[in-house]
Specification:
This protein has 541 residues and is of the alpha+beta class. It contains 18 helices and 24 strands.
Length: 541
Amino acid sequence: MVAAANPHAAVAGIEILALGGSAVDAAIAVQTVLGLVEPQSSGIGGGAFMLHYDAEARMVRAYDGRETAPATAGPDLFLGPDGKVMDWRDAALSGRSVGAPGVVQLMWLAHQAHGKLPWRQLFEPAIRLARQGFAVSARLNTMLAGDEWLATRTETRDYFYRATGDGTHAPLAVGTRLENPAYAATLEAIAARGLDGFYAGPVAQSIIKAVSEAAMPGDLSLADLANYRARERDPVCLAYRGRNICGMPPPTSGGVTSLQIMGLIERFGIGAMAPGSAKAVHLISEASRLAFADRNLYLADPDFVDQPVAGLLAPDYLKSRSALIDASKSMGKAQAGNPAGRRGSLEPGDDRSLPATSHFSIVDAQGNAVSMTTSIESAFGAHLMASGFLLNNQLTDFSFTGVRDGALVANRVEGGKRPRSSMSPTIVLDSEGRLVAALGSPGGSRIIGYVAKSLVAVLDWQLSMKDAVSLPHHINRNGITDLEQDTPITALESELQALGHETRVRAMTSGLHGIMVREGRLEGGADPRREGVVLEGVARF
């Protein structure tokens, strides 16, 4: 089964599975197609995090393909000539925001360990579609229409827009056939030459050219690309009501923070509460306040920052923090805790949630699973194209200032460092180590709340994956409690306010895609807020 954010990508994944490919093989096909048909969200010019479940070994492994800062980057990366912090938009749409892409390295690393089909075969669906062309979807058209900067860059304008005859350009209409021979050629180079097809030679040179010739050039170099390495890491896991929930470790904050939320609510009988009830929203929000307070203080790239991950997930620590939750009133803004006697440095930057990133979940015929969240950061990344694909602006996930109150910020800019993320690919196992579910979502720092609520939905409320990913959203990131507009959950505003919550109604465009095993069968869910689908193959187990 494949649950992905675009039908073309799901079809490519099923095609590879039908040929006997593994979940990782299918993931490579899905990712390379998503970079073509959903270019606003992810692609080989960005980064990703993957969790892999090995059904035979009953083991979860984590693969980190997060982008890295140039070796020369330092705390002044996003400071202007006057020494003041740059406007976020100016920074994002510049060469300075582009990190060394990690997706291709991640795919290669995971394929070396878990691939079954030949590497080059996995690129055939995307190459074929790029040469034949695909019909522009309603979502891509909407994203193009809402982007006032993309049409100001020659290369992106020529690809995504058409001249109207009056000196302006209109976004490609829904149904327009869009071909991308440059992207096909890039994929052919990667398929034939492996990592050297991307991190060296003409493709690498085109990446550096785009970054160095941007209106505000960046310092990314050929050496930065050649030296990039994806990492295999140990997942973070937490026992929860007889299940084992596993997530990605830092440099993403998603795994630790979502697991903390689950651990903090475990003592409450949330399974007996109605989904979307004021009581349930209140408890999840209070747990989220506490988890985000810790997240903002401690979590960053583990290769640069020593952080108390084990302490943050220790049962005694979670028990003491959970005791701060009052079922009858909100605590307001939470303060970070002190796990194992550790303190960290405050994160001064704002968390942003932008309509980009993508998630897909895959289970193969042997029961192996992939949960992968992939991104180029904000919609259309840095708005720079190289060899047919868009480049990321992930370095804006760093703190723009490196010191606060005299202390170094954990998520400060450093050469070769990976910016903190919120991506939260998740895999759930039963007490015997068998697969229960694989899920995740896009959504910036709101990803954490989307995933935690979906975990409660499938594990506590026993909802199907389809119903779980369709539930109305509520998010608290240690501040305002956001409620998803145009859904029944907005009716809770007065009740939540009476409990002490400051509330806000707003759009929340998640992209949850998950698969779960129920009574020996697979069932999937695709978020109705996007254009994703679930496709099933012939395997049963």
